[in-house]
Amino acid sequence: MTKGLSLFDKRRRRNRTALRARAGTRPRLSVHRSGKHIYAQVIDDANGHTVASASTLAGHEGKTATVAAATEVGKRVAEAAKAAGVTQVVFDRGGFLFHGRVKALAEAAREAGLEF
């Protein structure tokens, strides 16, 4: 029998608490990584809706769990956010460590024009 939270849940809570402290009114770029896909959303928490999103699900068969696919998702979510009028976000990695696919997505979003 395990007590308490998993390491993933501890990281997620620690990260979200820090985000709330420094986010202000900026939307957050939330990332979820599964074994096969990676998902990114720009969420406006003040209004409670998703401003922009991108993932490896739509039209990218064969390019799923790779750093190249995560880079492409980062570019697409940044373009969609800029089209919606969002240029500054806070990066919410959830409980995922900042390396590999998560890092590639973040760097691609920065290169495409999102500031965080």
Automatic annotation (TrEMBL):
Keyword field contains Transmembrane helix: no
Annotated TM spans: none
Xref: CDD domains: Ribosomal_L18_L5e (cd00432)
Pfam families (alphabetical): Ribosomal_L18p (PF00861)
Keywords assigned: Ribonucleoprotein, Ribosomal protein, RNA-binding, rRNA-binding
One cellular-component annotation, GO: ribosome
Physiological role: This is one of the proteins that bind and probably mediate the attachment of the 5S RNA into the large ribosomal subunit, where it forms part of the central protuberance.
Record-stated family: Belongs to the universal ribosomal protein uL18 family.
Complex and partners: Part of the 50S ribosomal subunit; part of the 5S rRNA/L5/L18/L25 subcomplex. Contacts the 5S and 23S rRNAs.
Record-given protein name: Large ribosomal subunit protein uL18
Taxonomic source organism: Sphingomonas citri
Organism taxonomic ancestry: Bacteria, Pseudomonadati, Pseudomonadota, Alphaproteobacteria, Sphingomonadales
